[in-house]
Design brief:
Blueprint lengths: L16 H9 L8 E5 L6 H12 L3 E5 L14 E3 L8
Parallel strand pairs: 1-2, 2-3
Helix pairs in contact: 1-2
């Protein structure tokens, strides 16, 4: 599972749409679940595919992105969130 990437880098996992869907399939989600996707750019394939899959199951979805101009920040989620972030140093 890509969730290992939280503690150890897994090169390229964020670009793998299939992995995003497969990781969620392993959780046996249903319409009572809420799935939160976090992608600084708002367009990370792993996250976007996971959110799209979750919506096909009737899950509520939340997307968190630091890019207000991304396509995913324009109403494509059940509940969009765009936190303001400080510039990178």
């Amino acid at each position: 599972m890509a969730s290992r990437a939280i503690q150890h880098a897994i090169e390229g996992a964020e670009d793998n749409r299939e992995l995003g869907v497969n990781d969620l399939k392993a959780l046996a989600l249903n319409e009572k679940d809420v799935v939160v996707g976090i992608a600084a750019s708002g367009r990370t394939p792993y996250v976007i595919a996971g959110l799209e899959y979750a919506r096909t199951l009737g899950c509520r979805t939340v997307g968190i992105s630091c890019n207000p101009g991304s396509a995913r920040s324009k109403g494509r989620r059940s509940l969009p969130s765009r936190p303001l972030s400080a510039p990178k140093w």
